[in-house]
Specification:
The chain has one domain. It is built from two helices and eight strands; from the N terminus they run H-H-E-E-E-E-E-E-E-E.
Amino acid sequence: MPHKNKSVTLLELLIVIVIFGLIIVGITSINVFSRHNVVSSDRRTRLQNEVSLCFEHITKQGLRTIGNETIYGANSAVSIVANTSLSFLVDSNPNGRKDSSDTWVSYTFSRPNLVYCANCGSNPTCACSAANREVLSEKIVTFNPTKVAGFTQGNHIELLIAARWDPSSSATISPQNPEINMQATIDLPSVSTR
């Protein structure tokens, strides 16, 4: 009885190579797809956190505002230069009254930077010194504060902030260069001082 040789035929070898090739291509494509989605999600999350920080900072200073725009007139507690700056008159010595120790704080937008000026003195259109400057974000593409019209005009501010991962890029918005838009109403305390 002749002994059968156990060997791999060419057809079996080709089938094994094709199966291994499919496994390698599948693993590689899953890896590339997951990295792409993780990177774009991470960028969107970082942008969202950065814009949220800006909103929290602005709201915190807004809650320290003293005065009432309805009683004292426009720009007595809030000063807005469209798409450029937002300033608040804050109660520096928390006595609840408008007095000479109160100072203006300002948020100035100069694309792509949103800059906070901690002490503008008595000038709502702040020329901030380097010692009083703090850059809150370097990824902002839109900063649009507006006063909400109505009975309590000036004591409610509608704020829109948009940030892009690469704000200097003229490329369109993509998963590699995501953009986040956030809008909120900031309710300032309605303090009337006499």
